[in-house]
Known about the structure:
Blueprint: H1 2-42, H2 48-74, E1 82-84, H3 86-97, E2 106-111, E3 118-120, H4 122-138, E4 145-153, E5 157-164, H5 171-176, H6 194-204, E6 208-214, E7 218-226
Parallel strand pairs: 2-4
Antiparallel strand pairs: 1-3, 4-5, 5-7, 6-7
The structure holds adenosine-5'-diphosphate (ADP).
Adenosine-5'-diphosphate binds at residues 131, 135-136, 139, 164, 166-169, 173, 177, 182-185, 190-196, 219.
Amino acid sequence: MEAQMAQSQKLESLGSLAGGVAHDMNNVLAAILSLASIQQMEAPEGTPLRKSLDTIEKACLRGRALVQGLLGFARKGLAEESLVNLNDLVRDQVALLERTTLQKVSLEMDLANDIRSIQGDPSSLSHALMNLCVNAVDAMPEGGTLTLRTHNEGVGSVCLEVGDTGVGMSPEVLEKALDPFFTTKPQGKGTGLGLSIVHGAVKAHRGTLVLDSHPGAGTVVRICLPASLQEGQAVAPLSAAPAAASA
Ligand code: ADP
């Protein structure tokens, strides 16, 4: 009970902190990130300049994950809503990560041609996808395969799966993996916020999240979100509907 109160006080003060500084810091990081990406295109691979730019990109992505994690605690519901195509979201994320994070693994994509749109917040979903890709790659220090898959499930759901052939999670880790601040990564590498941000985003979209993981075999994270009722037409905002329970 005491531990729970301490945890909720911790989250509350993180929320106020986020309200004050995280938004501005996020914009600063976005500006650095986009300039670094432009310069990366000019700098040939293997040169010291390119290595520095790759390091700047990595540091910004890490900073952005931290700041957006704090923002996620401060914000309730979705910052914006539009029709989102998960295939586009996957392709954009791959384009963003392919020159750095994804270099260490092989990538397989299996995107359903007839994928239905969902109504949601594209930046919160792409941030969630980035966290899942980073986790998947971290789980494959010796290399392996990252699989990004989308499919329609029945008429009502659209699913995105991020799979890896990495170290997998023990039952003890699996049980705590979604908790904020739980990490098995070395200090300075893990924040323990990645999956809790993903979980928060999925809940805000009234979706479900399932972790399927086996030590030594790998992990599949499956997110299913409600398909938009009418493609191309505005529907009632999610924020107006009561949140449904999810994983
Ligand atoms: P962080 O990545 O900062 O540690 P997360 O909340 O994203 O925080 O993940 C919590 C923990 O869950 C990780 O430290 C790791 O032990 C485990 N985990 C998450 N994703 C994977 C994965 N794809 N494979 C194996 N373990 C994972």
